Amino acid sequence: MRTLTHLHFRTPIPYNTASRLQEHLVSRFLAHKRSPTAIPAPPPSIITAEFHPVYTSGRRDVGAVSATQQAYLRASGRASFVEALRGGQTTFHGPGQLVAYPILDLRAHKLTPRSYVCLLEKALIATCKRYGIEAMTTENTGVWTTPDDKIAAVGVHMRRNVTSHGVGLNVSTDLWWFERIVACGLEGKRTTSFEREGVKGVGVDEVGRVFVEEVVGRLEGVEGWVRRDAEEVMEELGIGEGEGDACTTLWLEESTTPRGGDSELHLYESLPG
Which keywords does this Swiss-Prot/TrEMBL entry list (predicted)? Predict the structure, then answer.
């Protein structure tokens, strides 16, 4: 049995800060897979964070968002715009939105990609229920409070069964930001949050703890978790902070690295929007 490590960023950060930590943790799993006798298997981890306000476009929108449109999104002076190397279209991330990145080896927990996504969705639904919010899955990906109101999303990347990226859950997000775009290309759908559903005064930090608890309770081979300050861990590991933000959208692809290395699985759904 393993103990999961919960790495939490206490204040909003640039996307790239969480990304650098995520990449480091993934690299440790891949190093173990290359040399299993020489390098011990790292423990499973979940990174939780809030991002600075940012609009990001995915691969379907790269080059398609004009300079005029970018200027419109930046007009408030409070949000940046980033072309991200992800699937999907344009969406928003910002304070009040919980982003959680589980970093683990699916095989160690007897999971398939599909069962893993199902586990995350169930953990999100259970997290919402702990606050009196009835949530569900629909024919569209993500977690919804009604067929037209999306409260959370799942977006994961897998390489050699090692997961990265994860979920986005709107807690107290200012939903005005989403009104400036057709978030993630979902025409006619709305974005909701804990606050819009009537649950006020709840912090992302608290919801992050609940979500981690719900995930741990569903992971085979894991008994309990410990919480650490993510910034302190980055300092200990000598990982520098970065700038920029990004999100994910639904796409499924099997590919091979240019050097003929590891196959990768991308199972992406856009973060809340």
Answer: Acyltransferase, Transferase
